[in-house]
Design brief:
This protein has helices spanning 79-90, 95-111, 131-142, 171-185, 208-221, 233-243, 247-253, 271-280, 288-293, 301-307, 326-341, 349-363, 396-402, 429-440; strands spanning 2-6, 10-11, 19-23, 26-30, 43-46, 50-54, 56-58, 114-121, 145-152, 194-200, 224-229, 261-265, 283-286, 311-313, 380-384, 410-413, 416-420, 423-424. The strands form three sheets. An eight-stranded parallel sheet has the order 7-8-9-10-11-12-13-14. A six-stranded mixed sheet has the order 2-6-15-16-17-18, covered by helices on one side. It has a four-stranded mixed sheet with strand order 4-3-1-5, with no helix packed on it. The chain contains 14 helices and 18 strands. By secondary structure, the chain is α/β, with parallel strands linked by helices. Helix content is 36%, strand content 19%. α2 (95-111) packs across α14 (429-440), α4 (171-185) runs parallel beside α5 and α11 crosses α12 (349-363). The protein has two domains: 2-52 and 375-424, Roll (Urease, subunit C, domain 1); 56-363, Metal-dependent hydrolases (TIM Barrel, Alpha-Beta Barrel). The chain is globular and about 65 Å long.
Length: 444
Amino acid sequence: MRLWIRDPLAILAEGAARGLVIEGSRIVELVGRGREPEGKVDAVFDASRHVVLPGLVNTHHHFYQTLTRAHPAAIDKELFPWLEALYPIWSRLDPDSFRLAVRVALTELLLSGVTTAADHHYLFPRGLEQAIDIEVEEARKLGIRMTVSRGSMNLSRKDGGLPPDSVVQDEDTILADCERVLARYHDPAEGALIQIALAPCSPFSVTKRLMRESAGLAERFRCRLHTHLAETRDEDAYCVRTYGCRPIQLLEEVGWLGPSTWLAHGIHFTPEECRTLGRHGVGVCHCPTSNAVLASGFCRTRELEAAGAPLGLGVDGSASNDSSNLMEGVRHALMVNRLHYGSAAAVTHLDALRWATAGSARCLGRDDIGTLAPGKEADLALFTLDELRFSGGHDPLAALVLCGAHRADRVMVAGEWRVEDGMPLDLDVTELRRLHGAAAQRFA
């Protein structure tokens, strides 16, 4: 079936003033001003009320944290004390509460226009060994694309790391499960709905051997590598004290300095380190909201892009955001970067939207999503400007960002509608809110 998304109010694509045509899971034609589709269409969707974007791509999250938003133990703390306060609480995660946390995070992301989500799950307390399987099941039910990052921590407090013993696993257990989920779920093909990445958590929670072995598995299975890096000055000091080098040097030593790697945060890189990352094609996920909440600092977005490093956006965890809304993150990225660079022209609304779409897709190693063009996957986010906040907005694309759009009216993944009239299909949001809220009480 060929579907024409006709006459959008605005669209983030050149030469598509009259919309685009979708066949199956892909875009097959852009329809320019004054033109009709070249081939016969079977159905038409009138998009005259909608601003059409490529589906947003979220490149860093921690779904389980939806259970501990605005938690009193962690409010007004910076990263290390924040983690120390929450690790014992998170150690109580169980499969049922985790499943609800995942479902809530994925639903929130969809409603904000996200069509591809990357989650970094690294907590495996006893009983939650099947966490990756749960994430895959929930993503498939909602029909969202996902890069499920099999995270890990094996360096506990007794070994000189930060996390307590209750949430870490030993290296052999981690590596065996990484191989299991890669063999079972990872699809490296174009158009894949589920991919797996390997994601040792951070320099202060994993060993060098685990980093090296993860890199070897990633090469064997053609998957990507992900970790937190250069998020805080405490992390810099830990690396110098423990390894005798800065985080970027550690990355090189363990064989991660290459185009299959993308990093979360990347705040405290020097200009020379930005150039090093660019030369090696290492991606960086900018997390403006979380960085502000934890007062971690500013990511050098312009320097990284100028050096050639892929740059994407992520909401980060819902205990440091405390939302799973990437459209909101686009607005925050614009404001934070203008403040950082001291110029209103330094970063535009189009830059911020690009980071959340094409840039994020590059971080995940995907060239089949992130833009609207023939041959690309039909992943779309459609927003209306009907709310009072948009009244008087003259440039529809700019209004999405500057006036604070936060909820999509329609979302399509692989040619299938997954959100209609601002609501996810086949999901009772009221009941989900009730169940999730009850589960969260266990973590008070």
